[in-house]
Amino acid sequence: MPETTSATAAPLTVMTVNTHKGFTSFNRRFILPELRDAVRKVGADVVFLQEVLGTHEEHGKKWEEWPDAPQYEFLADSIWPQYAYGRNVVYPKGDHGNAVMSKFPIVHFQNHDVSLPGPEKRGLLHAVLRAPSLPHDVHTICVHLGLSESHRVQQLDLMCELVRSEVPDNAPLIVAGDFNDWRRKANAILEREIGLREVFQQAYGESAKTFPSRFPLLCLDRIYVRNASVHLPVVLPRRPWSHLSDHAPLVAEIHL
């Protein structure tokens, strides 16, 4: 494992979850309020969200519990005072993308468009967190890569370029999200190119199976770290999560 950078800093609990725009599989039921309750119970310091809606003009007319605020604000309300949103997909009635919710100040964020020719629009949301007890700012990148393997390889290259250009070598770095990497190629690339290590592979010898959440077969969701160590990462249980997301959420305690 990478060496811990500070022996006295309190650990960060991080979580990643694909919210599926607040709906169950096949959009049968709107479950965002239930999802918020479940995320809050985890109590993570930093939450990485994928497929979260910013706006949608029509859903509020159809669903009684539809929030007035963007979904990431609704999820963050009163628990995570800081949040950043990266809009990736825009359509006539709304938009969705990635988000980071944080209990610590977000001092800077930028969404990097890594879309490639074709219908898929993808982004890497880079947010910098400042915790008073830490000697360095914590860099986070929320990820949702493409379904095409050729696109994923190019998007991983773009991520490596982002890290080299924007993340100091000595800064703690946490990268998490939905990698769609069912052939498990990302781990070797990211460790070789920019020193990122996948936390489940470190702890248990292989990445966690997260998709589909009812009967996980594929290792699509990941948490990577650099200049940090990890304690007992876990896949959250099927109940209640299997009906809240088609991806099983991941949680890890990060020591900086």
Automatic annotation (TrEMBL):
GO MF: endonuclease activity
| InterPro entries xrefs | Endo/exonu/phosph_ase_sf, Endo/exonuclease/phosphatase, GPI-anchor_lipid_remodeler
Q: Does the keyword Plastid apply?
A: no
Is the Zinc keyword given for this protein?
A: no
GO biological process: any one?
GPI anchor biosynthetic process
What PANTHER family does the record point to? Answer: CALCOFLUOR WHITE HYPERSENSITIVE PROTEIN PRECURSOR, PGAP2-INTERACTING PROTEIN
Q: Write down what this protein is called.
A: Endonuclease/exonuclease/phosphatase family protein
Whose protein is this, by species? Answer: Ramlibacter algicola
